Amino acid sequence: MDNEKWISLDGKVAIVTGGAMGIGEAIVKDLKGCGAKVAIFDMADPKEESLDENTIFVKLDIRDKEAVEKAVQQVVDTFGTVDVLVNNAGVTRPRILVDYYGEQPQYELNEKDFDFMVSINEKGTFIVSQAVTRIFFKKKSGVIINMSSCAGLMGSRGHSCYSATKAAIHAFTISWAKELGPYNIRVVGVAPDILDRTPANNDEKYRAQAYGRGWSVDTKPEEFFKNYKKSIPLGRPGHLSEVADLICYLVSDHASYITGITIPVSGGKSKG
């Protein structure tokens, strides 16, 4: 896709949470390729080549309200405004409700894991969105992209807590769209399903996921992708760039009438 010919984000300023790696890194790259200036909010450090005169990095925990408000003001002080917020930061720990198999109790959902996922995926999204929306409200324009997940739309075995947090993100999307539409602020959800492996998808995650599905904890990640190919009509995982391309479209003027929905990026995979 030739971004420069069709999608121009020249003059736009975007904040991307969790923008240092994985999907977030791809989103930052695409937004900049379309002409936007980008602020990365993350606990992890981005690659050095990601930073230039059109990019700033703020190291912060999105659950810290005071730190977030200061970071948003830093973006305004640096670039003059904020036009786009991509709520991409999120975490998952595959956990089952009860250790049905009696062999790996560490993969049973506990309060620590529950609070960790809820506090980042839900509370963090709320805190950043509230801080940025105060700016959008004053200027009567802006776009919020909420990263949900197909797990939040359909559920996922061994991911009940994560799925619940992403269902909450979908609910934020449709509710905030109703609240903010009268002020020319759009809110759109994006729900990826199976994508290319990222640093967050480490071996420990695959062990926990395998156990939750009744498989051996020694199941190799490659086996997951073999099974995915059977359940995805397009026959492959999605690429990070395909999610990023969609987001660039959604924050552009081409999508000016799209709000209040969550769009799956799933290769046709569904409950059926």
Question: Mind explaining what this structure looks like?
Answer:
The chain has a single domain, classed as Rossmann fold (3-Layer(aba) Sandwich). Helix 2 (about 20-35) crosses helix 9 (about 240-250), helix 3 (about 65-80) runs parallel beside helix 4 and helix 4 (about 110-140) packs parallel to helix 6 (about 160-180). About 45% of the residues lie in helices and about 15% in strands. About 45% of the residues are buried. The chain has a 7-stranded parallel sheet with strand order 3-2-1-4-5-6-7, sandwiched between helices. The chain is of the alpha/beta class and about 270 residues long. Strand 4 (about 85), helix 4 and strand 5 form a beta-alpha-beta unit. One of its GO terms (molecular function) is oxidoreductase activity, acting on the CH-OH group of donors, NAD or NADP as acceptor.
CATH homologous superfamily caption: NAD(P)-binding Rossmann-like Domain
Helix content: 40-55%
How many domain units?
A: 1
| H/E element sequence | HEHEEHEHEHHEHHHE
For the biggest β-sheet, the strand order reads: 3-2-1-4-5-6-7
Distance between the termini: 31 Å
What is the second-level CATH architecture? 3-Layer(aba) Sandwich
- SS elements, strand count: 7
Task: Provide the CATH top-level class.
Answer: Alpha Beta
Number of helices: 9
Overall shape: it is: globular
Compute the gyration radius: what is it? 19 Å
User: Sheet bearing the most strands, described?
Assistant: 7 strands, parallel
Q: Give the overall average pLDDT.
A: 92
Structural class of the secondary elements?
alpha/beta
CATH structural fold name: Rossmann fold
Beta-strand level of the residues, as a percent range? 5-15%
Low-confidence stretches: none
